[in-house]
Structures are given as C-alpha cells and as structure tokens.
Amino acid sequence: MKRIIITILILATVFSCKKDKDELVKEPSKLTLKIWLVGSENQGNALKKALDDIKAEEVINKKIEIKTVPLNNAYYQINQMLTKESKEENQDDYVDILIGPSYLLTEFGETGFMGNLYEIFSKNIDTLSVYYFGDMWNGCKYNERMYGLPFELIEFLLYYRSDILKPPNSWTEFLNTIKALQKQGYDGAKIGYGAKSWEFYFTLVKQATGEIFEGEKAVFDRKPGLNSVLFLRTMYLNFGVPRNDRDVYSGLVNETSPLAIDDSRLLGKLISGDCPIKDKWNINYLPFGHARLQKTIIYGNYIGINKNSKNLNEAKKMSSILTSPAFGTRFCIYTIGLDDFFLPANRQSYPDIPIDYAKKNVIMEQAINGFLAPNHPNFRRIIQIINQSLEKIIDYPAETEIFEEITKSAINATKILSGVDIPASAPVRVIPAPKSK
Questions:
Q1: CA torsion sign, 232 to 238 to 239 to 243?
Q2: What CATH architecture does domain 31-153+300-372 belong to?
Q3: What is the pLDDT of residues 394-417, one digit of tens each?
Q4: Cys bridge to 84: 43, 89, 223, 253, which one at CB 3.0-4.6 A?
Q5: pTM of the full predicted structure?
C-alpha cells in the first residue's frame, strides 16, 4: 500500500511538472519580459547594455528582450501588436513595458491597452513628482488616470560657438546676430526640425504668453499663435534659416552656422570625446520674446505597463529600475555620441552626468521652468495637422493666407479634440471625447 501511494505521488509530480512545462511552451510570455522602445536601434542597444551591467535579468528573475520601433511608424506597429495580443492571435508577439511618447501611451491607455498606474501601483506614487523637472510627472495623466512614468527629458537649447559669438538673449538679438554672421561670410543659423516642428512652434506660442488648448478647444490661432507663425516665416524667408535641417552638428563644427537651436539630444555628440570643438561650443537659455519668457517645451519618452501583461510583478520591478537615479545616469553615459542622446527625467541623476557644471545648470534650470506638451489621446492626429499647416505656411506669399491656414488648422484640431474624425492622408482612429460630468 505504501509503495502504491509513493508511486501515485511521483506520477502526480511528473504530470504536474509536464503540465507547467507545456503551459510555458504555449505561453512564452511567462519566460521573457518584453520591452518595446520607441527610438533607434543604437539607443536600444545602449539600454540593453545598461540593463546587462546591473544584472537586471537576475533581479527580476526573467529574460529581458528589447525591441525598438522608429517614431514615424511606432503607432501602427504597436497598435497592430496590441490588437493581435488582445485577440490572442500571436502568443510570441507581445509587450510588457512600452517606452514611448506620452501621447502614445495615453492613446493606448484610453483604448484599453495600457494600465492605469494608480491601480498597478497606488495613488501614493504621486509623492515622487518632486524628483522630476517642471510638470513632467503629469505628462501621461488623463481623466484622473496615469499611463506612464517620466523616463526621458527633451528640451530646446540655444547652441553657439563661443569662440565666434556671444549668445543672443532675445529673438530680436537672434535675428540681428544672423545678419552680422552673414555679413562676415557665415551661413547664419540653423534650427533643428525647421518648419515641421510643432514642438518649436508651441514653444514660441508659450513664450508669447499664448495657450495651445483651452479644454476641448484649440486656440493657437489667436494673436500669439499667429505672431509666432509670422516669426517662423520671417526666419526662413528673410534670414535664410534652413527650413528642415537636421544636421545642426556639422554647422557648428564646420563654422558655417555657428548659431543654432536644437533639442537636448544634440548634446550627445558635442560632449563626446570625438567632438573636434569640445572647448569651443556652449549652450544658453532660449532667447525671449516680447513677454520676456524663455520657456521651452519639455517632453520625451515615458514608461507604461501593458494592462494585460502576464509579467505584471516583473514589469513593476523593471519600472522601478528604469526610473532610478543611478540607472538614469548609467543609460545617459552609454548614449554619449549617439544622435538620440538620453537625458534622464529624474533630477537626482544629474550630479554624476558627465557635463560641466555651468552647462548642466542651464539644462536643469530651463527644464524646471519648462512646460508640457498638451496631453490628449487624440494628440497624435493633431500633431499631423499642425505640422502639415506649418509646412504650407512658410511658402505662402500673403499674410491673409497664413491666417486662413492656421485658423483652419485650429478648427480641425478642435474637432478632433471633441472626438470628431476628419479626413486624413492616413487612416486614423479618433477616440471619443469624455462626456462632461
């Protein structure tokens, strides 16, 4: 009898282990924590290296896989994957953690894919907001839900060759400096992204004490918004600023354009040991306009957790690792020299970042006074509208046509904010606006 009982127990154990193994084969999501990063392959490799260095796989007791997706195709790839996952069509294609722009996480959150971090963690996580720049902590909040933790800081900075010129403090001085440089044989100045940059346009509007949205209405067609468009047009048409130049670095190095405005990702090449002008460049706050404001937009990637993740506990641990000050410093160092240099959103990471004290001060002070991009689940579509309008506006000969275009853009943006779809070049899904309480 005793032998029979032992045999039954052994068989039960064997079949139980086989069942667990079979379940793991059927559900590979139990074996690996998958992170999707909206960014370049080089940045993904740097992220993997930083996680390997701290033995993150041992910490969470899971394998870690990182997939990178380019921003221009991120929505379509991620939406396709999440839709398949929700239908359980492909068990091999899934995501536990999504690192991407706040508006993408909010959009996927409102459509039911990304988890509300107030439920995954608790409301107490708001106490961490003091460690982040400006209002960055609120960048992924919508309708009293939170879909992402701040991970990366991107802001605009003024770059210049300190051996050639002094930094202009106002936009009037900026234009006068371009004139003076051109008289001396230089091309003048460059602005990263050029005419297609909604980020830079919003920065100009805010500097002019204007608003972008008021509730469910877009209001960038008011006077500050129109004046900002005219200023952009003046720079491109009258002062020879390239309309869409991404190679700001070469202009600084070759002295052709020793004055530039670009986002903070340019810092990675300038602080690299390979930079030939390491003692000849500097940064400053953005020039100010009539309202004497030097505000910059602050944005960047956030960390979200898939609502349906089968590795929820491990995803929570990984989120804590990624947002820690030590990891932010480490990842920053590993992206030096890359086109998409990483600056952490966590202020506690900055003491050990290898940038000299004066430059670091400019970066931090301007970020503290920065403003967030408006967060809305339909913001991706609104960006498309604004960028298309900005591109057209630069070529318009008459101011009346500019006003008509920006007004039409604001009207269409308002429709989308309120949940109304409008014709677009690419198919889009517009999320219905929440009903007023």
A1: positive
A2: 3-Layer(aba) Sandwich (3.40)
A3: 777 677 888 888 899 999 999 998
A4: 89
A5: 0.89
